[in-house]
Amino acid sequence: MLNPVVIETQMLIRKPIHSVFEAFIDPEITSKFWFSASTGKLEQGKTVEWTWDKYQVSAKIQVTRIIANELIQIQWGEPSSTVDFIFEAINDNQTYLRIQNYNIPLQGDELIAFIIDNTGGFTTVVDSLKAYLEHGLQLNLVQDKFPPF
């Protein structure tokens, strides 16, 4: 049973919308601020695998919808849920990014734990993205979030 919960995190990124959008499409860029490796670029209808070497985990990512410079929608995780990456141009050099996670098939304590984990996780991703795109800094936030250190 799906519930109506929507987890959302957001951030203004001081880069053109195309640059922010491509940062999620192209694993050569995404691996600088989120995962360690990917089996390929995000393309609508395609399934890729993202890997976090430090944690020795990977996830299958089903790309359900892409609208260039507007939306990337994926299904991922255990349990599987929907994630939307929503891109809005504020001006030529600023993009407002929202990440929404929903269609979460959990209830009660499991749902609360999922909300806490994914809210923190996506916030870390957005913060790391901002540092990388705006300042060229690889802060290793995702790698340093959980033990072992």
Describe this structure in words.
This protein has 149 residues and is an alpha+beta fold. It has one domain: START domain (Alpha-D-Glucose-1,6-Bisphosphate, Chain A, domain 4, 2-Layer Sandwich). The protein is built from 4 helices and 7 strands, in the order E-H-H-E-E-E-E-E-E-H-H. Strands 1-7-6-5-4-3-2 form a 7-stranded antiparallel sheet, covered by helices on one side. The radius of gyration is 15 Å and the shape is globular.
The count of helical stretches stands at 4
For the largest beta-sheet, the strand count, sense and barrel status come to: 7 strands, antiparallel
Overall pLDDT confidence: 95
Radius of gyration: 15 Å
> CATH topology, what is it called?
Alpha-D-Glucose-1,6-Bisphosphate, Chain A, domain 4
Identify the overall geometry: globular
Number of strands: 7
